[in-house]
Specification:
Blueprint (H helix, E strand, L loop, with lengths): L7 H7 L1 E4 L20 E4 L5 H20 L6 H15 E5 L2 E2 L2 E2 L4 H10 L1 H11 L9
Antiparallel strand pairs: 1-2, 2-3, 4-5
Helix pairs in contact: 2-3, 3-4, 3-5, 4-5
Amino acid sequence: MDFNKLDTKAAMTEGHWLHLRSPKGDLLFADDKAKKKPSRILVYGIDSERAQQAVRGLSDAQRLVATSGTDDRSLQELEEQGVGFVLEIAGGIENVIVDGKEVQGDRESLRAFFLRFTWVGEQVFGVFRDRGRYLEN
């Protein structure tokens, strides 16, 4: 077996387009009936440099809490930290409609989207760790 086929770092740096699912598990499409425009987010995997930087950032924040002995952060601060992490590992968004408009890929639009639809961030986080999704069949 040629290990080049198992180069997760290269594959995770390119990213994986995650086809979003509803909280019920249904695949989501911008064009509900035709099902030709999948609602999706580009996710960089755990072995990519971009994701590694995000992980190191979280680790620094967690070390700060551990050394101070207290965690007086509010729920809002914890949500912001989680959304900040998802923003670092999400590289793009396509065919996602909110209030009749397509969500744009700029940081503030994505931040608002991930804060409103936290279940999407959970899907992004799940894919980010799944090395098998990034490898070709």
